[in-house]
Specification:
By secondary structure, the protein is mainly beta. Helix content is 6%, strand content 40%.
């Protein structure tokens, strides 16, 4: 068996950009308005939430780091969704945790889709091969489904809550008097990302609620830190036959006020040949491809946090899990 070592990592969200957020006129009522509270489950596929699609109660993986939503081909047909091919010239790929990509060919449309008592007028999904979707879920829900809501991810209490985005600025962390925040940026495909400082270097990051472990791409580790998955001091994990299945590195993310211990970062391959490293607003990311960011914060980090995403403010608020007034 490969050697597994628990590594202490100090996590920090740093607001790298001093920018003024132009606030709209404050609503008269500053209280949060919760529209739905869903039970949140955690399994090997990631965070899972209940949905109702064409009248059928189903389970889908929450993908907070992706704008689009996906459904397995088997379930698109089982639920009698309207499936149509993607327009000619449209190139859409879906990547797994290790950046292996699958070319997508079709979209599926659901006329009826709901989160609890919140009914959407319709929902669209990219159709993905059955082998890429676990048997206990039908696909994944991206941020396109939550464009009109704020979201709260409370893994410790197994809750995923949806709120109205109409509230007073900085008035959303109801569970704790102390919190930190970081500005959110919106990518070309609508995905949400933010800057983090990793071993002294600023890197673009996303919330990867579909991953068990935090990942970082090896072209970025070579560029910024001079190591990759084949470096001598990289730790490995092996399957029952002794084959290496993952490579890890201890990294340090630091700021005042928040520590997450015993985290590890899995090194994954470059997303695609046409993704090129660049620096945007002082943080390392990619150009030439859309919707891709080097650092993805998996559940080994996120389960230690309580997170609120204020979509209209474009602010991510967070505390340690279990923090209270």
């Amino acid at each position: 068996m490969g050697k597994k070592i628990a590594l202490g990592v100090s996590l920090v969200f740093i607001a790298l950009f001093s920018e003024t957020l132009l606030a709209a006129a404050e609503p008269k009522d500053c209280h949060l308005k919760r529209h739905a509270s869903l039970d949140l489950a955690e399994d090997p596929t990631g965070l899972v939430i209940p949905v109702i699609i064409e009248g059928s109660e189903e389970r889908m993986v929450l993908e907070a780091g992706d704008w689009a939503s996906y459904i397995a081909e088997r379930d698109a047909h089982r639920l009698s969704l309207h499936v149509r091919p993607l327009p000619r010239g449209v190139d859409v790929q879906n990547a797994d945790a290790r950046n292996n990509t699958v070319q997508l060919q079709a979209m599926a449309i659901a006329k009826r889709f709901a989160f609890g008592n919140i009914a959407l007028s319709g929902a669209s999904f990219y159709v993905v091969p059955n082998k890429t979707v676990a048997a206990n879920v039908i696909g994944s829900v991206g941020m396109n489904m939550f464009a009109n809501f704020d979201i709260e991810i409370d893994i410790a209490n197994r809750k995923f809550n949806l709120y109205s985005p109409e509230h007073c600025p900085s008035s959303v962390v109801y569970w704790s008097a102390r919190y930190d925040s970081v500005p959110i940026r919106v990518g070309k495909l609508g995905e949400l990302y933010f800057p983090m400082v990793l071993n002294g270097k600023a890197i673009e990051a996303t919330l990867a609620t579909d991953l068990a472990v935090t990942t970082l791409t090896t072209d970025v580790t070579r560029w910024l830190f001079g190591f990759d998955a084949n470096s001598a001091d990289i730790e490995t994990s092996a399957d029952a036959d002794g084959r290496t299945t993952a490579r890890y590195r201890a990294m340090q993310l630091r700021a005042e006020g928040l520590d997450v211990l015993n985290a590890k970062i899995e090194l994954v391959k470059r997303p695609a040949d046409y993704c090129h490293i660049t620096s945007r607003s002082g943080a390392t990311g990619y150009e030439g491809c859309s919707g891709v960011h080097p650092l993805r914060l998996g559940l080994n980090v996120l389960r230690k946090l309580h997170v609120y995403v204020a979509t209209k403010e474009k602010i991510l608020y967070f505390t340690l899990a279990g923090a209270a007034n």
